[in-house]
Amino acid sequence: MMAETMAREEPTVRDMTGDSDKEDNFSLAQIGGNYVLAPKTALTWENCDELDTIFNGLAHSRKEGVILDFKSVPLMDSQILELLCRWQEALKRRGCLLKLTGLNQFCRHLLSVTRLLDVFRIYGDCLEAARN
Predict the structure, then answer these.
(1) Does 109 map to a domain?
(2) How far is CA 85 from each of CA 10, 15, 23, 96, rounded to the nearest angstrom?
(3) How many domains does the chain have?
(4) In tens digits, what is the pLDDT along the chain, a chain of 132 residues?
(5) Which CATH number covers residue 109?
(6) Greatest CA span in the chain, whole angstroms?
């Protein structure tokens, strides 16, 4: 009985990308009350506007927060750091959270040296982030 209850409480993943044959720089899914945005490339000034446009589309929804999954992100630059800080503030004003997952050593180090590591909620994977 307890196992059945636990299984029902586990967040489920719902793909929201539509056409799976389409090659995009980002995928979007939903886990429980969170959107999961998963970049498939380095995050730099070159795709910062595209990322911001996607976020602005999500920011007006009635979700608990946005999980940004870095598992396929080899690096990010300072423009992305600025964007993450703006997102953090925008979501905080709405009572929502920005959660980062799957950070590699480079991205984690960049957050550390810029003293932003403790600013964000960081989790090992998307399911852990969705549960907390």
Answers:
(1) yes
(2) 29, 26, 28, 14
(3) 1
(4) 444 333 334 444 444 444 443 348 899 999 988 999 999 999 999 999 999 999 988 877 777 899 999 999 999 999 999 999 999 999 999 888 999 999 999 999 999 999 999 999 999 999 999 999
(5) 3.30.750.24
(6) 51
